[in-house]
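REVIEWER CHECKLIST
Item 1: Sequence provided? yes
Item 2: Single chain? yes
Item 3: Sequence as submitted:
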Amino acid sequence: MRLYAAVMSAGALGALGCLALGCAFDPATNMLICNVSACLIMAVYAHYSNRFSHTASAAVTAGFCGALSVFAGISRYCVSALENANYDLLIINLAANFGLCLAVMIIAGLFLAGWKTKNKGGKR
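Item 4: Structure as written out by the authors:
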């Protein structure tokens, strides 16, 4: 029961973060910022995940990042763009969301792996 409470609480915080960003940006920009932010958090968390409990891992990954990233919003946006035959914007938005999310996770992972290796070398 504690696991579910942690995931729901973190999910509520992620949804509030998404809502707060939604008030500051237009819908397409909001989706991009939320998705890239969630991917960055996931990459950093994955690097340090061995330091946290299973409950904390589920809360951060499934709860907070799951609610912060708005892939359901992308689906809604894609359907709207298809209905309006706005294919250029559809392709740009999809490429930006998926491409930047993957790039952020890969770059953050490589950076953190290099940083970890560099710091281990200095402690010897």
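Item 5: Key structural point noted by reviewer: Residues 87-123 form the longest helix (37 residues).
Item 6: Recommendation: ____
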